[in-house]
Amino acid sequence: HSHFSVQSSSKHQVRFYFTSKFISSGFSFSASICFTLLLVAINKDMAETKEVVISGIAGRFPECNSTEEFKQKLYNNADLLTVDNRRWSPGMYGVPSRTGKLKEINKFDAEFFGIHTKLANAMDAQLRILLEVTHEAIVDAGINPKDIRGTKTGVYVGMMTNESSDYFERTPEKLTGYETIGVIRSMVANRISFQFNFKGPSVAIDTACSSALFCLHEAITAIKTGQCDAAIVAGTNLLLKPATSVMYHRYNMLSPTGTSRPFDIGANGYVRSEAIVALYIRKSTDAKRIYATIVGTSTNTDGFKIEGATYPSQSVQSQLIRETYARANLNFNDVHYIEAHGTGTGVGDKQELNAISDVFCIDRKSPLLVGSVKSNVGHAEPVSGLVSIAKVLYALETGIIPANINFETLNHNIPKLVSGELKVVDKQTPLPGNMASINSFGVGGTNVHLILKAHDKKMQTISLPTLEIPRLVFLSGRTREALIEQFETVENYADNNDLLTLINDIYKSKIPGYKFSGYSILGQTPRNVEIAQNNGSGDKRPIYFIFPGMGSQSLELVADLVKFKVFKQTVDNAHSILLPYNYSVHDLFYKSDENTFKSIKNTMFTVLIVQIGLVDILHSLGINPDGIIGHSVGELACAYADGCFTLEQALMTMYWRSTILTQIDVPAGAMVAVGLSWEETKKRLPEGIIVACHNSADSVTISGLKDITLNFTETLKQEGIFAKPVDSMGYAFHSPYLKGFVPSLKPYYEKVMSNPKPRSSRWLSTTYPEHQWNSPEAQYSSADYHLNNISSPVYFHGAMKHVPENAITIEIAPHCLLQAILKRSLPSTVTNIGLTKKTVSNHVNFLLEAIGKLYIAGAEPQLQNLYGKVEYPVVRGTPMISPMLKWDHTNDYVVPNFVDKKSGSEDDQVEIDINSQQDKYLIGHTIDGRILYPAAGYLTLVWKAFAKQQAKWFEDVPVVFQNIKFLRPTVLNTEGSMKFDINIFHGSGDFELLEGGSLTVSGRVKLLNQSTKENQIEHLATISEQMELNSDDFYKELRLRGYQYKDAFLGFVEANSEGSRGKVAWTGNWVSFIDTLLQFELISITTR
Q1: Region entry C-terminal hotdog fold: which residue ranges (predicted)?
Q2: Cα 317 from chain centre
Q3: Domains (ranges, CATH) in the chain?
Q4: Would you place residue 539 in the very low, low, confident or very high pLDDT band (cuts 50, 70, 90)?
Q5: Are 589 and 568 in contact (CB under 8 A)?
Q6: C-alpha distances out from residue 1032 to 706, 854, 1035, 1045, 1084, Å
Q7: Which of 206, 251, 266, 406 is the most exposed place for a label (fewest CB within 10 A)?
Q8: Rounded CA gap, 129 and 992, in Å?
Q9: Residue 1020 has pLDDT above 70, yes or no
Q10: Residue 1075 catalytic?
Q11: Do 1071 and 932 touch, CB atoms closer than 8 A?
Q12: Beta strands of 302-418 (E only): which ranges?
C-alpha cells in the first residue's frame, strides 16, 4: 500500500491509502477528487476554527437593570425615554427634557472586587457598573470567571466622554490621588484586565457613536490573528454633565421635543441615552453558548466631504456594506432585516436608507425590513451598536423582530420607503431567514457594518437519560436574598437541561468573592432549598471519610439508593461476585424481612456494600478523601476507599470474616457503649471485660462475656453513668474471646490479600495505636493488618485527633451513628455531614441534601457525573443567566453632580476675551476711546449665574434686579482676558461681581413674581406719538457725547422725542439688546 497524510489546522490527521490496483486504474483522476474533497474539508474546518461568536451578554439599559428586562420591554413596545431630574432638572440650559437613563448608578459592590471605598468613590461610575456587567457577561457564557484568569482575553471598551474626570478636577484641593486610576479613560479597559487577570490587548476606543462596534471589529481581528483567544467587548455612556447636552443641542443634533422617531417624517433629531453593555466573544469551537455567529465585520471612514465633517456619506456607507458582504462571501438577498443606525435625524436617516437601498434593493423580490432600537431607547452614542446587537440577538433567538415604535408617517424624502422596497418594522414581525445586518456610524465618519447569523442548534442530538432522582442544583452569590431569587428563577427551568448544564459548569467550583452558597432540589413542594454563608477563608477544606462499623446496618434506604445508577451498579457487581458463593446480594437488598439482620453475614454485608456504594457515588462526584478513618469493621471500607482493595477483595474479606465466624465456637459475648473516659473505664472494669473501642474523650465501648458485661452495665446505670448495649449479635468483638477466630480466618485472608498494597498516609489506622503507625505491620493493607483489626481494640479517638480544624467529615454508612461523637470530639469549625439516616422517609432527598451540604461547606461535587451534561454549545433559546445575577448594593458611591447646590453662597467665574470669536462684539462698546465692559454685560452675567443655581437655562428664568450699584468700570484690552467672579448668596439673592478681586457691581437679584407690586415699573408719560428720532441722528448725538458705539451696540431704530416709545433691533445678543434699552435713558438727558 502507498499512503500519504495531510495535517489539517484542527490537528485532525487525515490519511488516504491507495492500493496498487487503484493507482493503476487511474490514480491521477481519483486522487484529484480525493484532494479536492480533502481541501474542502480542511477549508471548512479552518473556517469553523476561525468563526467568532457572541457567547455572553449583559447590560444596563434605560429603565432596565438586565438584558431580560430590556428584552421584555422591547417586546412590549416600551418607550424608555423619561422626563425627570435624576441627572439634572428638565429643560436646564434649554436642552430637551427627555433622555434615556439607567435606574441606579450610585450602587456598586466594591467588596466583591476588593476595591477600597476611597478608590470606589474616586472611580468613574461607568467603570464601576462595567465591572459588574463584565462579570455577568462572562457568567452568562457559562464560565466561572476564575477559570479564565490568566488567559489571553482581550478587553475593548468603546466610550466617548469621561465626565467624572471633569467633575473631580473642578476642586483640585479635594483630589485624593485615587482619581489617577479611577477616572482616566485607559483605566476603564485596563481595570477590567486587572480585576479579571486578562492578558490580552486592553484598550479604550473613541470613534464617537460607532465606538463599541469598532471595538467588536478590532476584537474579532485580534482573535483571528491569535492576539487573544476571547474578548470582552463593551461600551459605556452616562449623561452626567448637562454641558455636553447643551453642546449637542446648540449644534442642532438633538430633538427639541425629545422624541426618537427614526424614519418618520416627524424625525427632528436624536435623543441622548445611557447604556452600559458587555459582550463575551470567543471562537465557536470553544463556546458553551452561542447567541450568534459574527459572519462579517468591516469598517471604513467617510474622509473629506464637501458638506462638512459630520455629514454622513451615502456612497461610503454603501461601499462598506458591499465590502463586508464580499468578505463574508454572502449574497445581499441572504439578509432580510437591517438594524439601522437610525438616529432619527432627517439627514442621517435619509443618507443611511439610501445607502442601504443602493446595495440591497436591486432585484429584491420582497421588501427589505429595517428598524432601529433608538426608537425605544434613544441614542446611547458610543454604546449604541451594542444596544442594537442586544435587540438583534433577541430577534435571532426568538424569530421575532421587536417593533420600531414612534413610526407613524414614513419619510417621503426616502424613495425606497415610498416605493415599499424598504419597510419599517412598525410592529412585531417574524424574522425572515437566520441573519441580520447592523449599521453603526460615528459622527466624525467612522462607520462599522456587522452581519450576525443565528445559532442553528435548536435541539440536542442526544438526549440525557431519564433519571429516577430529582435534580440537585448548586448556586452561589453575593447575598442570601440574591440566591433565594435566583433559585426561584431556576425552579422555572427545572426541565431545561441546557440551562442546568451551564449553571452546573459555572458553580461546580466556588466563585471567589461570593459570600453565600446554596442548593435546591428542584420540583419539590415545599421547595427544598438551603442557603448558608461560605467558609470565610476560601481555602480548600480537607475531606475525611468516616466509616462506622457494626450497629450502622439498615436496609430502609436501599430501595431509594438504587435509583442512583452508580450505587445500583455497585450492588449488581457485588451480587455477581458473591453469587458463585451461594450468597445473593439481590435477595439481601430486595427481599429482606424482620429476620434479615439475625444473620451476622447479612449485617456485615449490608454495612460494607452500602458503604462501598456510597463511596462510589462520592467518587463519581469527584469527592475524594484527604483522610480516611474507619471504626472497627469500617476499616474494610477504608481499604476500598484508599485503593488498597478492589470491590471483590473487600467483599471476599467480609465473606470469609462472616462465614468463619459462624463456623467456630466462641463464648457468648456482649458489647456496651459507656459514657466514661478510657482511663476511668479501665479502672472500673471487672475481670473478663476489656475496653474494646476508644470512641472519644468521654465515650468507650466495652466487650466481654455476656453475663459479666451486662451485669456491669446495670451497675453503671445505677451510678448514673450512661451505658447502652450495642447489638453485636452475641459476639465480643475486639476481645481475647475471639482468639480462635483469627487462626481459622488467616489462610482465607492470605489468599484474598496475597499481594497486599501499602496503605496511603490518608488512611489513619484505628487498628494500631498512633505510636505504632510507622511499624512494619501497619504499613500494608495485609492479612495480618485486618486480622489484628478483629482482635485488637479500636483506637478511633486517637485517629480523630488528626482531623484538621477546618475539615469536612463525611460519615458513610447505612445509618450514620457517629454524628453525636463527631460533634463532641471535633472542633466546632469542623463540618460533619452524614449521608444517611434510617429514620427519614425519603432517602434519595436526604442523600442529595447531604451532597448539597458538602457544596455549602466548600467541597465541589461534580453534578454532571450524576446527571450527565448536554453537548455544547447549548441550544438556541437557552435562558440568559446574566439577568439572574444580583449584587450586594448596600452602599452608595459618589456620582458626579454638576448642578448640585451648596449652602451659603455660590461662586461662578467667567472669563472675557475680546480676541475670541464669542466676545469680540464687545469692541463695539467704546466710550471716550476706551472699550468698557457694558453695564448690561454685568447684569447678564449675574442673570446667567442665578439661573444656573436654579438648574435652568437663563432665558427660562425671569428676574428682577434691585439696588444695583456700579462701583467701578472695567476696561477691556486686546492684550489679555478679564475674569469676573460672581458670588450670589442663597436666600437673599444679594450678589457681588468682582474683577481682579475688587468689587465692581453689587445688588440683589430674584425671581420675577408677576403679582408683586414692587415689580411694577413706572413708565414715562408719553407726550408724543411721533417717531421723530431716527438711528443716524441718535448715534450722531451720542458720538458728540463720547459714545463711539459700533456694530452690535447700534441697536437703536427709532424713538419719540422724550424716549418713552421706540424700537430696538433684536439680534439674539442679550448684552447688546439690554444695553440698547439703557441707551434710551440718554434721550431725556439734554446736556452733553
Answers
A1: 1025-1088
A2: 35
A3: 52-454 (3.40.47.10), 472-541+867-872 (3.30.70.3290), 543-663+732-837 (3.40.366.10), 667-730 (3.30.70.250), 909-1007 (3.10.129.110), 1028-1084 (no CATH)
A4: confident
A5: no
A6: 137, 97, 6, 12, 17
A7: 251
A8: 42
A9: no
A10: yes
A11: no
A12: 337-339, 368-371, 400-401
Which amino acid makes up residue 837?
K
Which among 925, 928, 956, 986 is annotated as catalytic? 925
Rg (CA), the chain: 42
* Cell output for 90: 428638565
Give the model confidence (pLDDT) of 337-351 as tens digits: 999 999 999 899 999
Cα separation, 894 vs 1067, in Å, equals: 43
Contact 134, 194 (CB under 8 A): no
Average pLDDT score over the chain? 89
How many DSSP H helices and E strands does the chain contain?
A: 35, 38
SS3 67: helix
**3 pLDDT more than 70:** no
Cis amide leading into 873 (omega within 30): yes
Where b means 16+ CB within 10 Å and e means fewer, 334-358 reads bbbbbbbbbbbbbebbbbbbbbbbb
Would you give the DSSP letter of residue 957?
A: -
Contact 8, 41 (CB under 8 A): yes
Q: Strand 528-533 vs strand 516-521: parallel, antiparallel, or unpaired?
A: antiparallel
The string of pLDDT tens digits covering residues 891-901 is 999 898 887 64
Element (H, E) at 669: strand 669-674
Pairing of strands 337-339, 435-441: parallel
Of 998, 1006, 960, the C-alpha closest to 979 is 998
Tell me which of 21-25, 285-289, 966-970 is least confident. 21-25
Cell of 828: 466546632
Residues in the chain: 1088
pTM summary value: 0.81
Q: Are strands 978-985 and 971-972 parallel, antiparallel or unpaired?
A: unpaired
CB-CB contact of 382 with 211 (8 Å): yes
Mark whether 925 is an active-site residue: yes
What DSSP assignment string belongs to 111-154?
HHHT--HHHHHTS-HHHHHHHHHHHHHHHHTT--GGGGTTS-EE
Q: Could you tell me which residues come within 8 angstroms of residue 613 by beta carbon, excluding any fewer than 6 positions away?
A: 561, 566, 567, 570, 571
Look at residues 402, 125, 387, 153 and name the one whose alpha carbon lies nearest to residue 277.
Answer: 387
In the chain, helix, strand, coil percent, each to 5?
A: 40, 20, 40
Q: What is the pLDDT of residues 610-635, one digit of tens each?
A: 999 999 999 999 999 999 999 999 99
Task: Please report which confidence band the pLDDT of residue 19 belongs to, taking 50, 70 and 90 as the band edges.
Answer: very low
Q: What is the mean pLDDT of residues 413-442?
A: 96
